[in-house]
Structures are given as C-alpha cells and as structure tokens.
C-alpha cells in the first residue's frame, strides 16, 4: 500500500506503519525534479509489482485461445492490413484516404479495391474511360469499378461494432 503525503501536512506520521511514504509531486509547475521523477518511478514500480500479484498472468497461447482474431477483407481477396497497404484509420505517413475507396495506405493509382485493369492506368475517375481526366470529362458518371464484395470502411466499422 502506498500513501501519498503532501510535504506541508502530516509531518508526524506513525513510525510503526510499514506503509511507504512519498511526497506529493507538484504537477502544476513546469518541469519535474530528478528526486520527484525518482519517487514517481518508485511508486510506479511498486504499483506494477502489486498489480502483477493481483491479476493472473495469461500466457500468449492462453490469450490467443480466448480471443480469436477477426480477419477482415475490404473486397474479395483484399485483406485489411498494414502489410497490404489497406487499412481503415490513419497510420504512419498516410493521413489521407484513397479518393476512390476511402481506405488509408494507398492512392487511387494503386488501390487494391479497384478491379486490376483500372489500377495504374490513365482512367477518368468519373466515367472510368481512358485517356482523359475528371476535369475534362463530359460523360455521365459511372459506378466505381470496385472488386467483387467491396465493403466501405463505414460498413466494416459498423460490422465490428454491431456484430
């Protein structure tokens, strides 16, 4: 058990107690002294030691058997993963979504959720015809040529929340 004591109060604490005393660390000022940092570290280590005695230790194999990972796909055979450059939240340098599928980790040119014939090509993002861009397009908008079984990031999040 740890008692945190304000240094201006309780100077005459019972000497027979086996409770460790620490001065209250003043967090309202800029900076922390080495002595205060050391005390904070000691309190943290003691708390960690006590917590590990209370909470039963679960090995990785035990934990793995209790929680089965969900494997999620954004479209047919396209795994949502960092290694696949296809994920639903900002990660690393990718702070913006793909303009087409709204997943993070890739751009329109290498979108894994587009049908392969439309990747790396010079296609209009409005009508999906070649050799012009959206600013010059006079054609009617067409449905985005996603892979089969495409799921938007919103659908994936809803699935995780409500299933």
TrEMBL record:
Segments forming domain CCHC-type: 97-113, 123-139
Gene Ontology molecular function, alphabetical: nucleic acid binding; zinc ion binding
Protein name (record): CCHC-type domain-containing protein
Organism lineage: Eukaryota, Fungi, Fungi incertae sedis, Mucoromycota, Glomeromycotina
InterPro entries: Znf_CCHC, Znf_CCHC_sf
């Amino acid at each position: 058990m740890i008692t945190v004591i304000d240094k201006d109060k309780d100077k005459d604490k019972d000497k027979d107690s086996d409770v460790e005393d620490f001065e209250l660390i003043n967090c309202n000022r800029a900076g922390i002294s080495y002595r205060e940092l050391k005390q904070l570290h000691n309190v943290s280590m003691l708390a960690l030691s006590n917590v590990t005695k209370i909470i039963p230790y679960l090995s990785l194999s035990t934990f793995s058997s209790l929680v089965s990972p969900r494997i999620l796909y954004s479209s047919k055979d396209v795994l949502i993963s960092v290694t696949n450059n296809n994920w639903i939240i900002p990660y690393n340098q990718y702070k913006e979504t793909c303009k087409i599928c709204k997943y993070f980790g890739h751009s329109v040119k290498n979108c894994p959720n587009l049908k392969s014939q439309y990747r790396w090509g010079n296609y209009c993002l409005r009508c999906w015809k070649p050799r012009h861009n959206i600013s010059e397009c006079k054609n009617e908008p067409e449905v985005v040529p996603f892979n089969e079984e495409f799921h938007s990031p919103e659908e994936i999040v809803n699935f995780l929340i409500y299933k």
